[in-house]
Amino acid sequence: MARKQARFLGKLDAAADDNFKDHFVESLDLRRLLTNDSDIIYGSKGVGKTALRRALTELKEDHFFATKTVNLDDISFAQAHTALEKLRDTTSTEVPTLARNIWRNLLAMYCLEAVAEHVTDDDLRNAIMATLASEGFASVESNKRFIGQIERLLVRIAEAGLDDQPAPLGLNTKQLTLVNTFPSNPDVEALLRKCTELPGVVLICVDGFDSIVDHTRESRKAIFAGLIDAIQKSSNDLRFKRRFCFKAFLPQELTDDAHASLWDSDKYLFNTHYVRWGESDFQSLIRRRLIPYSRTKSGQFADIWNEHMPEKVRNDAHKLEEQTFSYILRHTLYRPRQILTHLQRILDKWDEVSEAVRVDPTFIPQVVAATNYDLARSVVGQLEIKYPLLGVFMQSFNGLDSTIMVSDFLERLRRLFSLTTPADTSKLFDDLFNCGVFGVAPRESVNKGRQKSDFKFAFVGDRLLRSVHATVEHDDFAALSPMFHEYCGCAASAYGAVIPIA
After folding, report:
1. The overall pTM is greater than 0.70
2. In this predicted model, which residue has the larger pLDDT, 252 or 390?
3. DSSP run (H or E) holding 159
């Protein structure tokens, strides 16, 4: 136990990391976000979105007059969508439009709340607190605040119906105006204008969607698309533009529908950021985690790494010598939490059986294989929220080669997911590729008997491929990500080790 604590690499979850300042790797992503512009930041669970949010609100807080994190973990998509449908039935307004308007009003409330928490002007603080109380912000639960906004709008619509005759659609002019009026509370308008006198910019970070599970495709589309659209509109509103900016950290796995309907628009292009890590970023991360236990005077990654890990490891399945760092990295989906899990497990298991500091190269593959199973099970569990049959599909590869022709991969998708059209099959192919489940390679570059084969994976490189199915031929190859091999029970590939490339 003493040796385990001596090489404890720190918390895997950035939200709970007590040594966050020492562990955080200042990447290009942070430099892109350290502006007064509003941004949409998306990426897979465990890729570092919360770390970026903490860096902005803690390490770089001096850049802003005030910072506030809006944690939406307790939002019930089912309740929110049901309430929005009730509002739709009352107003004959589409759910995405209603969602955008509700989000705009909520964001305004959070802006005012952030000002009240930091401003020294007692009169302004008291005025804000009184307005927040009238808008139901006494509760700190984001779900109650969201539902409360809808309920108050319904009450206002009902009250406005007493003043005039109904219009042809069933609502009078005043009621119809209420649906699209922003802010819905005139007191908020006055307070927002008062906040333009602040000496700096207020940063509102929206985070926490990763743990949400009770949602359907339609509720996801409405909630996420509404939030993204609300941020875009609010960021261009003069009542916000000079004094408030928003950074929304959204999970890639749950925002594809919103992406398809909104994010490809030019208006989001320069303020949409896909978080991903390169090899040098991972080396910086691991260097920071290992350096407290290093005896070398060098601060270089290679010197620190080689104190604890062997230079190379033997891949017996493919009779291949691999660089140890590259071997471990390719058994992840390029997410920092995953490589830290691998490394911590290796160190812990080694310290249980040996007094030597450097891990023996023959020890590493067996630990990586066991950790692969746990990591893959976690990722499949997350993705099954959206793709309920994914676990069945993955384990249908039991005993089979992990590398198969694209035509066979598509047929397996069609059959196991009971898809009825080629378009549905192609979309699922694209989705699973962009989630890192598999990679693709041209037919001429993949041959039996090779020690290794390069495959294009979505988690390597600068951007996602939205229509990867259109870039491959049916006689090209698809290969499961190496991290999934133990979970799927695959046989050793006849085409060699699968090497992720951009």
Report:
1. yes
2. 390
3. helix 142-160
